[in-house]
Amino acid sequence: MTGGARPRVVLVDDDPLVRAGLRMMLGGPDGVDVVGEGEDGEQVLGLVEVHRPDVVLMDIRMARTDGLTATRDLLAAHPEAKVLILTTFDVDDYVMEALRAGARGFVLKDTPPDRLVAAVHEVAGGDHALSPSVAALLVRHVASEQRAGQLAGSARDRRAQLARDRLARLTERELEVARAVARGGANAQIARDLYMGVPTVKAHVSSILAKLGLANRVQVALLVHDAEELE
């Protein structure tokens, strides 16, 4: 996607009323162009090959091929594809499976329209997007793994110290941004909360990823949690 262009989106959901509502929500002056629609995950590969969208906005639960399976199949054929999962379900397992499948983000269907549009733009631009509630679920998942003993006390302490050591490479302002990212903040929200411009937030996020050797915002969230930077 070229700078300033409206992202091209393929919308996949088994409910035609939901698709119609989403099409209206996404199609405003600052929105996106819905170039294709499907009602089941089995249609995704064909839709992508015909329309070449910037983002596939996909439901999880569909009758024949669910969104997680469709995401895996799509990325196996087109690794460059960008999938944003949209669902009513905020169960931890769905979040983790979606991210493991290669999804670039996971937002809930009750996400406000402006935030949903922002999430599509973020993913189209190569970023990752998580609703704040989903970011919280991600953190809780890691915490529950630790409590279950997957990380013994000494190993957990070492991991926390390593995470703190890595975060120490950041400036104070970058650390504030990293914490905001870990809470699921989008660039515009972080800019408002921290009283800075969106381009400045983007520059800080890019610097954070480079300094820490991370690939995306999800990894930032996990690292901040490992360092026990979140309440």
UniProtKB/TrEMBL annotation:
**Out of the domains of life, which is the source?**
Bacteria
SUPFAM superfamilies the record matches:
C-terminal effector domain of the bipartite response regulators, CheY-like
Q: Which Pfam families match?
A: GerE, Response_reg
Question: At which residues is 4-aspartylphosphate found?
Answer: 59
Cite the HTH luxR-type domain residue spans from the record.
163-228
Keyword list, A-Z: DNA-binding, Phosphoprotein, Transcription, Transcription regulation
Where does the secretion signal sit in this chain?
A: none
Lyase among keywords: no
For the biological process aspect of GO, one term held by this record is:
regulation of DNA-templated transcription
Response regulatory domain residues are 8-124
| Tagged with keyword DNA-binding | yes
One GO MF annotation is: DNA binding
Q: What is this protein called?
A: Response regulator transcription factor
Q: Which organism is it from?
A: Ornithinimicrobium pratense
